[in-house]
């Protein structure tokens, strides 16, 4: 265990209350992580990660990544997600991360909260475009993995890029990943399919509408319902975004 990992874990233990796997319902949605956790709030974890990054702002990327690697090898949910939060707040460390690292780290994560902490808007469109063949290859490989967490990641990694940039490389890959995984019915996948379709609506609404018309019978019902609501109202729920 890296010494800074040890210090962060001590703070987690100070702030939290140890929970055995399955002892409460927290973090069990969409399959959960099945790990022990401490009920440390997300705002507290964000504050811990920001403080660590601020205290090490002049450190080389390798130093931050050593702490990230150590935390990802930890036992608890909080350790895993602290690792991804450090990456989120450290541009230097994040810039040193490649697709192979993401693939390896996903093998240490389980459940929607952990997977999404690494894959949701952490790596921007520009990051992927800079090494597009490698990122495209990673996403395609993840979608065919025996690990459902990696298959979810293949969808979630694209939700940010298709929302923020109008680049056909991302939309083409997104539709291909949805097509590949649309027959799966575990909620880890069905909710991610819905999420990616709704993210596509922002810049590719007509294409999404046409895809729904052609594939409604084979898509998860929740994805069809939520995406049609987004197309009609601009929001997932149909309620005002105010």
How would you sum up this structure, described in words?
Helix 7 (112-119) packs parallel to helix 10 and helix 10 (148-156) crosses helix 13. The protein is globular, with a radius of gyration of 18 Å. The mean pLDDT is 93. 67% of the residues lie in helices and 0% in strands. The chain contains 14 helices and no strands. The protein has 242 residues and is mainly alpha-helical.
Q: How would you classify the helix and strand content by structural class?
A: mainly alpha
Please count the helical segments: 14
Kindly state the percentage of residues in helix. 55-70%
Roughly what is the average pLDDT, rounded to an integer?
93
User: How would a crystallographer describe the biggest sheet?
Assistant: none
Strand content range: under 5%
Q: In sequence order, what are the helices and strands, one letter per element? A: HHHHHHHHHHHHHH
Write down the overall geometry: globular
Radius of gyration: 18 Å
N- to C-terminal distance: 45 Å
Count the strands?
Answer: 0
As residue ranges, the low-confidence spans are none
Concise description?
By secondary structure, this protein is mainly alpha-helical. The chain is built from 14 helices and no strands. 67% of the residues lie in helices and 0% in strands.
List the helices and strands and how they pair.
Blueprint lengths: L2 H13 L26 H14 L5 H12 L4 H13 L1 H5 L3 H8 L5 H8 L5 H6 L1 H12 L4 H9 L2 H6 L3 H14 L5 H29 L5 H13 L9
Helix pairs in contact: 2-4, 3-4, 4-7, 7-10, 9-10, 9-12, 10-13, 12-13, 13-14
């Amino acid at each position: 265990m890296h010494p800074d990992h040890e210090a962060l874990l001590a703070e987690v233990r100070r702030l939290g209350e140890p929970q055995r796997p399955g002892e409460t319902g927290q973090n069990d949605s969409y399959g959960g992580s099945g790990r022990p956790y401490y009920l440390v709030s997300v705002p507290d974890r964000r504050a811990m990660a920001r403080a660590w990054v601020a205290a090490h702002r002049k450190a080389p990327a390798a130093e931050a990544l050593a702490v990230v690697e150590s935390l990802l090898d930890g036992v608890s949910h909080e350790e895993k997600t602290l690792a991804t939060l450090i990456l989120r707040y450290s541009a230097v460390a994040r810039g040193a991360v490649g697709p192979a690292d993401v693939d390896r780290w996903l093998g240490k994560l389980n459940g929607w909260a952990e997977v999404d902490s690494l894959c949701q808007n952490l790596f921007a469109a520009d990051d992927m475009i800079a090494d597009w063949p490698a990122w495209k290859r990673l996403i395609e490989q993840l979608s065919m993995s025996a690990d459902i967490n990696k298959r979810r990641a293949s969808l979630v990694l694209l939700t940010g890029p298709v929302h923020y940039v109008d680049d056909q490389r991302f939309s083409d890959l997104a539709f291909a990943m949805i097509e590949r995984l649309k027959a799966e019915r575990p909620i880890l996948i069905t909710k991610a399919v819905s999420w990616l379709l709704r993210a596509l609506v922002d810049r590719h609404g007509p294409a999404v509408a046409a895809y729904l018309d052609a594939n409604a019978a084979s898509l998860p019902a929740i994805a069809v319902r939520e995406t049609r609501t987004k197309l009609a109202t601009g929001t997932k729920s149909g309620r005002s975004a105010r």
